[in-house]
Amino acid sequence: MNAAAWRGRRVLVTGHTGFKGAWLVLWLERLGAETTGLALEAPTNPSLHLLLGADGAAPVDLRDAASVSQRVLDAEPEVVFHLAARSLVRPAFADPVGTYSVNVLGTAHVLEALRDSAVQAVVVVTSDKVYAPASGPHTEDSALGGVEPYSSSKAGAELVAAAYRRSYGVPLSTARAGNVIGGGDWATDRVVPDVLRALERAEPVALRHPDAVRPWQHVLDPLRGYLLLAERLLASPSDAPDALNFGPAAVESCSVAELVERLTVGFGGEPGWRLDEDAPPVPETTELRLDASRAGAELGWAPALDLGEAIGWTVEWHRAHARGQDVRAFTLGQIESYEARL
After folding, report:
1. Nearest CA to 176 among 194, 192, 162?
2. Radius of gyration (Cα) for the chain, nearest Å?
3. Beta bridge pairs of residue 245
4. How far are the Cα atoms of 151, 280, 284 from residue 90, in angstroms, in the given order?
5. Could you count the other beta carbons within 10 Å of the beta carbon of residue 282?
6. Rounded Cα gap, residues 182 and 311, in angstroms
7. What is the helix (H) or strand (E) element at residue 333, kind and residue range?
8. Do 184 and 23 form a contact (C-beta atoms < 8 A)?
9. Which of 85, 109, 188, 268 has the fewest CB atoms in 10 Å of its CB?
10. CA angle 108, 155, 21 (to 5 degrees)
């Protein structure tokens, strides 16, 4: 990465109160950027955003076009990372209209607010689930689709982003990242937080789809991809790729059950897992793999951490938090260690 590209740069991060957003804001601040956030209040308690030092900005709902526009106007961003979204499959399944309102219309509100601005680079973060089910790893040319409201809403966000790029010349690219793990995630219905809650209860974690294969990676790997993609847009928006996948090598993908088993080893033999036979049926893709070779060709990007290291760093972070260590200092320490890998 080019640290000089971020020094003094005005950056707006939507979804900055969430897991990935909190990590990204801390990294941007370390690089010298001037960050502004746009999001609802922190979605969990504990909250990584609050542990790292909340910015005090008033919450903004993506569905409120006027409030979104005002926050963008006040921030005058040169770069925007749009991460804010409803990001969980089961809640999206329970409230499809609300999910489409946030993920599709909310994306349109952000891009509309940027349409006549002086923004130089916009990275719209969607998901590895934007693709229609297919065998083999998905490339950026794979058909978009979605078997349930969350994935289809993210595919919809991709279409909105493409329309604003082509119709209005907004300098943007989309980023499709695999499943992320790392310290500070306490969301409902995600594997690592579910493991943590099972540890507290001293019982096995209940898994709905233990055999589902996902492209797991440490949160810092795709965040570096987002930063590199924004740097490309800043340097030459006409040469930047429209969309890029950020995920591990295909052989690094593993099942939910295997991830829990490896986390269990890291946490000293607990909690293990059991099949959740009472979970309501929600359609999900059985196997999801990404081909991220284009990100390597375009940006020189590749994961710096393998799956074993990603799991180890995640376990270390949560052990440090449980010991009462300074979370901000520990998180910065992991960012520094990651940078040293590069």
Report:
1. 162
2. 19
3. 176
4. 11, 9, 10
5. 17
6. 8
7. helix 327-341
8. yes
9. 268
10. 65
Q: Give residue 68's identity as a one-letter amino acid code.
A: V
Question: Which domains are seen in the chain, by residue range?
Answer: 3-341 (3.40.50.720)
How many whole angstroms separate alpha carbon 293 and alpha carbon 222? 13
Which amino acid is present at 115?
Answer: R
306: its two tokens: 């393998």
Q: At what angle do helices 106-114 and 149-168 cross, to 10 degrees?
A: 20
Q: For 9, what's the count of Cα atoms within 13 Å in the CB-facing half-sphere?
A: 27
Q: How far apart are CA 310 and CA 219, in angstroms?
A: 8
Instruction: State the Cα–Cα distance between residues 205 and 89, nearest whole angstrom.
Output: 18
Q: What is the pTM of this model?
A: 0.97
Q: What percent of the chain clears pLDDT 90, i.e. is strictly above it?
A: 89
Q: Is the dihedral of CA 37, 23, 158, 42 positive or negative?
A: negative
DSSP one-letter string for 284-316: --SB--B--HHHHHHH----SS-HHHHHHHHHH
Structure tokens at 168: 């209005």
- Spatial distance between the Cα atoms of 51 and 211, rounded to a whole number of angstroms: 34
Output DSSP code: residue 251. Answer: G
> What is the per-residue pLDDT for 142?
96
Determine the residue type at 281: P
Q: List, in order, residues 6 or more apart from 11 with CB less than 8 Å away.
A: 28, 33, 34, 35, 36, 77, 78, 79, 80, 81
Torsion of CA 14, 219, 18, 210, to 10 degrees: 130
- pLDDT tens digits for range 297-313: 999 999 999 999 999 99
Q: What is the DSSP letter of 178?
A: -
Residue labelled with tokens 């010349």: 169
Structure tokens at 142: 């794979």
Question: What count of residues does the chain have?
Answer: 342
Sequence letter at residue 287: E
Summarised one tens digit per residue, pLDDT across range 244-292 is 999 999 888 999 999 999 999 999 999 999 999 887 777 778 889 999 9
Q: How far apart are CA 122 and CA 234, in angstroms?
A: 9
DSSP 8-state secondary structure symbol assigned to residue 147: S
Residue listed under structure tokens 């409030």: 67
